[in-house]
Amino acid sequence: TTTLVWLRRDLRLHDHAALYHALKQSQRVIPVFIFDRAILDSLPRTDRRVDFIWQTLRELKAELQALGSDLCVRHALAAEEIPRLAQALGAQAVFTNHDYEPAAIARDAKVAASLAELGIAFHTSKDQVIFERDEVLTQAGGFFSVFTPYKNAWLKKLDPFYLQTYPVTRYQAALAPLTPEALPSLADMGFAASDIGQIGIRTGASGAEALFTDFQQRIDRYKDARDFPGVKGVSYLSVHLRFGTISIRQLAAYAWQRGTAGSMGWLNELIWRDFYHQILWHRPDAVGQSFKAQYVDLPFPNDRSLFEAWCAGQTGYPIVDAAMRQLNQTGFMHNRLRMVAASFLVKDLLVDWRWGEAYFAEKLLDFDLAANNGGWQWAASTGCDAQPYFRIFNPVSQSEKFDPEGKFIRRYVPELARLPSDALHAPWQAKPLLLASAGLRLGHDYPEPIVDHATQREKALALFKRSA
Ligand code: FAD
């Protein structure tokens, strides 16, 4: 029998559920990737994600060609191309891994229906999370919308079975022998190469493995270091988890078996990832809409010039500006700063969280609908947060606490680099003489704060209170 394995968010050959099942059940397995025009056509022509995928596919192709097979890559509408290709290649079945995003679910339903008409089977597996859909439920049988009880139930359910590796190599003789085909170039698809090489992003399973090896040296210190953006405290694996260049089972198993405070703290974050995926599965209506019904129509003033200053990293609040400039320059933002920047947009600038969510979705290399929507709604108090809306981050105290020496601010807001640490977090409060000696003219070299935090905080409280 011949089968296709359709790769999507799982761009690796090891510990891969769909690939494993296909190899085990058929004699001739053809791996396929579609640059889906339904996604690509609306993206900017230089997109770091497209480049990341392209470079990762180059590595995958070389690996498969070394095994006498190949990766079949097309630039087309996936919903049409998969059934067409399956028929043209004489496949009896298509194997793929679950995707929980509403658009992907609709696409997969279309593919399944077209394949069924052709008499071709469609098999799907869980792969990108440890527990999916209805696997972790409350005692009453509902889904969890609060993280801590979800986490407790998740940990209670966990056993080595769920962390087992799919032994793909054992069955790899079933990969179809194929004549190597060239990878379509980025230019062929209307895209330009990005700067991911210059900013040091390593792609593919090899890039993921290198990052994970490095993080293993630091994982025990994760809990203490994870909140400080100026310190190398986190794993930086998010883009690899997004595109599946590393297996979630491998990571969760390592953290769990190690069992230190640091590694369990890290496992906690992997559980957040599962949490938001199951929220997306149960509440697809919360995409583009408040999760909590009472906040659906919050009357945000939505001042476009404030939004634009936030996007550009020109708000006059150094920690927020450093965060936004990190995002713009590197496609990454540290988790602490995602919380601070998101809170600032919603509760200081009074801009609809969906504007910020969309901006992050365009810029983040690790953009993931479940985590991004979850993170934004958490920060905006419209989503799954046990805390009520009156938790409002103070951007100055967050800065003092998590970037005390201003290491991070100095890197991304170089115009402030010469200020002493105690003046760095709120330069508008510094003595004019001090600013002058650092060669800084506020309002000229760096903006005055575009809003007053205390004033805006009151406005945000009033805005939410009306709907609460
Ligand atoms: P680590 O601290 O090393 O964590 C390990 C992994 O756990 C991450 O790679 C990620 O897969 C997962 N993880 C960590 N924190 C979270 C979380 N809060 N929610 C879900 N998964 C988590 N993460 C994304 O992957 N894509 C997004 O689009 C995204 N948007 C966000 C938007 C906002 C407003 C907020 C507050 C958070 C967002 N996050 C998102 C979560 C988190 O900030 C990133 O996953 C993390 O900063 C990535 O860095 P890391 O890989 O070094 O993380």
UniProtKB/TrEMBL annotation:
It catalyses: cyclobutadipyrimidine (in DNA) = 2 pyrimidine residues (in DNA). Gene3D superfamilies: 1.25.40.80, DNA Cyclobutane Dipyrimidine Photolyase, subunit A, domain 3, HUPs. GO terms for molecular function: deoxyribodipyrimidine photo-lyase activity; DNA binding; FAD binding. Keywords: Chromophore, FAD, Flavoprotein, Lyase. Binds 1 FAD per subunit. The keyword DNA-binding does not apply. FAD binds at Y222, W266, E269, L270, I271, W272, R273, D274, F275, Y276, D366, F367, D368. Its EC number is 4.1.99.3. One of its GO terms (biological process) is response to light stimulus. PROSITE patterns: DNA_PHOTOLYASES_1_1, DNA_PHOTOLYASES_1_2, PHR_CRY_ALPHA_BETA. The keyword Lyase applies. It comes from the Bacteria. InterPro entries: Crypto/Photolyase_FAD-like_sf, Crypto/Photolyase_N_sf, Cryptochr/Photolyase_FAD-bd, Cryptochrome/DNA_photolyase_1, DNA_photolyase_1_CS_C, DNA_photolyase_N, Rossmann-like_a/b/a_fold. Its cofactor is FAD; (6R)-5,10-methylene-5,6,7,8-tetrahydrofolate. PANTHER family: CRYPTOCHROME, CRYPTOCHROME CIRCADIAN CLOCK 5 ISOFORM X1. Belongs to the DNA photolyase family. This is Deoxyribodipyrimidine photo-lyase. It comes from Chitinimonas taiwanensis DSM 18899.
